[in-house]
Amino acid sequence: MKRLLFLLPFLLCADEDFISHYEYGEMLYNQPRGVNCAECHGESGEGKVIVEFRDIHGKKVLRGPDIRKESLASMINSVNSYHKIMPRYYLTDEEVKAIYDYLQKKNSEYLDESEEGNTTK
């Protein structure tokens, strides 16, 4: 019992989270359920070429879309919907929010520049 009382101050001062919200979002973005978002959406959500191929109509490119400017609601809808290419990940809204916040913070300079460009018209 005395040992527990000795540890009590340390437990009360300890942070609740083992990793930060940003780190959690980064972890989910890079490895949510076996296939990471970066494979198709790029390192920072900018989108990237998934595959190039030729068919009877010529050269085709399958590209993951740029998701840096997507709204949280749009991301939640996309992750929890069925698509022709993107798998459904079954992430909670809180997990998608962590990914969204991670991308917003990681791309803050890009998003600020983009906003400035829209207001100088």
UniProtKB/TrEMBL annotation:
Superkingdom of origin organism: Bacteria
Keywords from the UniProt entry: Heme, Iron, Metal-binding
GO molecular function, one term: metal ion binding
Domain Cytochrome c: 20-107
Protein name per the record: Cytochrome C oxidase subunit III
